[in-house]
């Protein structure tokens, strides 16, 4: 139907309720008419905007920053007009060092969750919960490794699941208190309706974990890393790809 040309790589689009297509490419975020591809607006956040966007129930577009830079900020933009609503600046102790922000996830109460390369006085990296209306920080969670590479996942009870290079965490969505942690290098998770959370990993396995307790249910091994987020079918089947070149479908009760 149409093609939007760009000299930069384009990331996964987000689609609004009126079929507006939002995409970050290079240093610009575009809002495109879904039918014609024509520009509705452009927003330039002042940094690279290549990470996947998120859209709130009120149409607000949330923009992270995928490439580390000392100028990076996290932005909220009016989805209809492209006007900035608020920005969340880096809170790291050394503003001359680069930071980055993950693609966000939005809670049922509108709280915006995202990881960062910001760090505190103890040298730990910060994961944030931010009020969607004001852009004010609700809480932060500190860990030894940054959580800026993958968006968090949110359970039906509001639990926030975060992955870093060395751990997966389950956090209380209202307080940021840690519920459990699981050692290992995991990638973007997916949550099933039976309270199972699935992680790919660099140990070549898909891990099925009890979302409430953090205990492992089972593992499925492939021949190489599993870095993509799994998809879960209506019947509970888990679909995922591996660096071994295979695409797998596994029973969720395996």
Automatic annotation (TrEMBL):
SMART domains for this protein: PQQ (SM00564)
InterPro entries: PQQ_b-propeller_rpt, PQQ_rpt_dom, Quinoprotein_ADH-like_sf, WD40/YVTN_repeat-like_dom_sf
Residue stretches making up the Pyrrolo-quinoline quinone repeat domain: 128-250
Native organism taxonomy: unclassified sequences, metagenomes, ecological metagenomes
Protein name: Pyrrolo-quinoline quinone repeat domain-containing protein
Any Pfam family hit: PQQ_2
